[in-house]
Write a structure and sequence with these properties.
Length: about 90
């Protein structure tokens, strides 16, 4: 599986810097970031992992929601409804 991950990572443009994370931001993501760096592709590691990122995002939702204007453009998710847009 590691070979597949590294091969997939290398198939992406070298102009990008991958962000590596696991659930808690521990040894697995650190090991992957280390392997990528050793093969010449520096990456960033998300401190605290996905759980810390999610906690940070949830704590800022109320403040962030005021910055954007939301508009529903389709029906309820998963309803199977499709609205056709008329041609000009």
């Amino acid at each position: 599986r590691l070979e597949e991950i590294v091969s997939e990572a290398l198939s992406v443009s070298n102009n990008q810097r991958p962000l590596v994370y696991c659930w808690r931001g521990g040894n697995r993501s650190g090991a992957m970031a280390h392997i990528l760096a050793k093969i010449g592709w520096p990456s960033a590691q998300l401190d605290g992992g996905y759980k810390a990122y999610r906690r940070c995002l949830v704590s800022q939702l109320d403040e962030m929601a005021g910055r954007y204007r939301f508009q529903v453009i389709c029906g309820t998710t998963g309803s199977g409804n499709k609205r056709k847009i008329p041609s000009p």
